[in-house]
Amino acid sequence: MNTRRRRPLRKGPxxxxxxxSVEEIVRELRRQSxxxxxxxxxxxxxxxxxxxxxxxEFDFKDRHLLTVHHKDGNHLNNPPDGSNWENLCVYCxxxxxxxxxxxxxxxxxxx
Length: 111
Ligand SMILES: [Zn+2]
Ligand SMILES: [Zn+2]
Hints:
mainly alpha, His-Me finger endonuclease fold, two-stranded antiparallel sheet, 40% helix, binds zinc ion
């Protein structure tokens, strides 16, 4: 009578998916939607193709030399008005960070 096939629910021994941490999943989602590219393009649009520090201007073709610095150091803080972004050329950006993250950190605390 009851000839319906019963499919056994497949429970993997260690279900691959459930093995992922929330962090990993979020990271993957982020990679897919790519806000990392998004804010960069937006900052270049808002602030222009110019280094905020040395004032060097960039062409569309060497805009890869221009990077986006987060003023508060939080890469997740991306207000669309660009208030947390600073366009820095790779040289100035490196300089900014090599100046000591600690120094930045302490300065921030004062403000
Ligand atoms: Zn510069
Ligand atoms: Zn930076």
